[in-house]
Amino acid sequence: MTKPKNPKTIAGTVAAIRKILEDRQRWTKGAYRITVGTNVKFCLVGAARFVDGPFEKQAIEVIHDALPDRWKNRNTLGANQKESLIIDFNDSSSRRHPQILDLLARAQEIAKAKDKENKKK
After folding, report:
1. Which residues on neighbouring strands pair with residue 41, listed in sequence order?
2. Which residues make beta-bridge pairs with 42?
3. Which of 55-59, 68-72, 96-100 has the highest mean pLDDT?
């Protein structure tokens, strides 16, 4: 898998994450990244880390902000609570691929608004 070029915005970073995960065969639960044959699979946070770049942290924040409220308020033990909540959401036994894409679509809208806000500054 080719690493995306560094996106220049938060929305560009979220779009790169979505591009990786839009193929069901590239999404996984329970690991940041795994390789099965020639196929590389990522969880939400793993895809964000793979995209990397200057907007990775902001992309994680907007993905967190796009989570349903019941997921944002859960207790986690991870050092980075936002990442831990995203991982919990991704790895939920009831989670399905279309829900991941829906979450990223909501995150994309939030990211566009944040990018627009940042341009004004």
Report:
1. 34
2. 27, 33
3. 96-100
